[in-house]
Amino acid sequence: GRYEPSTYITIRVKVADGSKAYPFEIANTQDFFNIANGYKMVSDVLTNEYHYMLAKNINLAGQVFTQHSLFGGVFNGSLTGLMQYTEDSAVQRSIYGYKVVSDTQQTRPYYGMFEQVGIDGILDHIVLTQTDVQYKTEQAETLYAGILVGKLDGKITQSYVSGKLFVENTTDKDTFVGGVVGLHSGYSAGDSVDQSTQSNNTNYSVSIAVTAPKAYVGGWAGSVQGQEESTHLSMIEGVNGFASIVVNPVKDTTSMSMAGGLAGVVLDATIGNAIIQPVIQADVVGGMAGATYNTQMDHITVELLDMADTNATYGLYGRKVTGGMIGLMDASTITFS
């Protein structure tokens, strides 16, 4: 054909190198599983420092995972569910159908889709729904289990988790279970993703059942724990949701359980602007937390649901202690709640 010097063809090429500016795009389940390939040894710790973006919805339905964590090690990169190239092009993506049936013991104490999110790690705009997670174990040390994260030192922002979680631990070690996070020592912020069947500020809607001699269970986290110094308090801001929790007593043991709509226990933390809808049965029950120490709470709302059951008045049934807001509170303050 004839060459026309005035004819131009423009081809757009996007280079993804896993940096913040050019995150790896996840367009299918294999791309999602490949997050595991980003982990490498950093100062003798298995770590992933890459950045990822969901380009498509990820359907995990039909697969049953047997490992405690899809992504073992410390995630110090970022994963966002918001596909966005410009300010006007944002599209929310989702992960759904995550199912785990695990009855094996592991040496590490953190169970979750992400075993650990490190201090530099960020999970943003993550929508994880239709989950069904079951952990049965004889953990030789303290256990922390959540649907999304085992241990959070980094951040979870504007995200939403829903589904079911069952944990059975036959040893007498402490068992901390959260609908989203097992051990929360980082930062989480709300103004969450809008869900068609949930209110605009709902970050979780979970059903949790636990059988363990020593259990601490919360809708968001089993344990929220900062450092004693005020500059290192763990922080939760605007994280709201619904939690149905049943902690079963273990026969022939001196069992003790604490449960709250937000957290089982809270130590050295600040919590603000939360709306919790709890339905709980355990030994020590609080609408927000089973127990708190050195915790500052501000603008907390617990919406008690009348279950029309004499053993679960307004959705809270503590076999030993029941508190509308907190089961047991020490060195803590509540304001405007």
Structure report:
This protein has about 325 residues and is an all-beta fold. The chain is built from one helix and 33 strands. The chain has one helix at about 30-35, and strands at about 25, 40, 45-50, 50-55, 60, 70-75, 80, 80-85, 90, 95, 100, 110, 115, 120-125, 125-135, 145, 150, 155, 160-170, 175-180, 180-185, 185-190, 205-210, 215-220, 220-225, 235, 240-250, 255-260, 265-285, 290-300, 315-325, 325-330, 335. The strands form two sheets. The chain has a 31-stranded mixed sheet that branches. A two-stranded antiparallel ribbon has the order 8-9. A hairpin with a 2-residue loop joins strand 2 (about 40) and strand 3. It starts with about 25 loop residues before the first strand and ends with a strand.
Taking the alpha carbons of the first and last residues, their distance comes to: 77 Å
Indicate the structural class. mainly beta
Poorly predicted runs of 5 or more residues: 191-201
Number of helices: 1
Q: Report the radius of gyration as a whole number of Å.
A: 21 Å
Helix content percent band: under 10%
How many strands in all? 33
Oligomer state equals: single chain
Q: Give average pLDDT, whole number.
A: 87
Q: What's the story with the biggest beta sheet? A: 31 strands, mixed
- Taken from the alpha-carbon principal axes, the silhouette is globular
β-sheet strand percentage:
over 45%
Note the main attributes of this structure:
52% strand, globular, mainly beta, 337 residues, 1 helix
